[in-house]
Amino acid sequence: KAKTPETKQQVFVWGRHSAIPGGSQSDVLWPQRIEWFEQNPKGWKKIAFGPDFGGAIDAQGQLYVWGSFGAHSVGPVRVEIQGAGRGQGLEDVQFSAKKMFALTRRGDALSFDDFLNVLQERVAPKAALRKAQENLQKASEEEKAQFEAALKEAELAASHDVSDRALKLKAKVVSGLPRAGWFGWLQGYRGCVQSMSIGMEHGCFVTHQGQLYCVGGNEYGQCGMAPPKQRGPMGALEERRRVEVDPPVRVEFPRTAAPIKRVEVGGRHTFA
Q1: Rounded to an integer, what distance in angstroms lies between the CA atom of residue 155 and that of residue 158?
Q2: How far apart are CA 12 and CA 115, in angstroms?
Q3: Would you list the DSSP string of 98-144?
Q4: Which one, 7, 71, 218, 258, has least CB within 10 Å?
Q5: Per residue in 24-58, pLDDT tens?
Q6: Is the pTM of this model over 0.70?
Q7: What are the pLDDT digits (tens) for 187-205?
């Protein structure tokens, strides 16, 4: 919902409970206002979701992420980017089934391959505490002393809660794409990444010069390359075997085609 001088920017969400910012015990069946977003006076430029996680970028380019892991949730929590892109503001964030991608203001495309594991580490103390409580409830008289000691250890670990601290995530530049600045100049590129579209299994990137690059799943040629011929009969409901394109490939268009301005990916389709 747009921000006006009289009101703070409001964000509403609904749907499956697993990706709700701040966590939810059940599916959200109608629009629910997430007041956490209103605590940031800068406002928000982008919010995106994956299957069980999500992220948002505020107006100053700061990234926040959240996620759900079973009965436990993490965040939203601020991200401190390590490695590539450190200190740069972000323009876009999007998710595949297991990875997070971001676009810097300079035009570098970044990937965070291990962000789910790092995010999940935040719930480990809470999960261990809950398990210790369940074990104590089920323990026999002979086992109680042992499980009581284990519960005290779990309570101590959970008391040092770091869930609100900034999450340090290591980013790397998506190899094979045009780079910003002198990195790109040395590699012979003229124009960095302008925009991107990330789906569950493949992603595409548009450069300032109107070129299109694709990476990821290519079972149906969605990355712009002919996939290997499938062996055996293929019925309408049969799944093709996984075909991966990595690093990104530049998609070739007819000579009469104008420069690409925008790309959108579907589950197994690409539109430009």
Answers
A1: 5
A2: 25
A3: S-EEEEETTS-EEEETTHHHHHHHTTHHHHHHHHHHHHHHH--TTTH
A4: 258
A5: 888 999 999 999 999 998 899 999 999 999 999 99
A6: yes
A7: 555 558 999 999 999 999 9
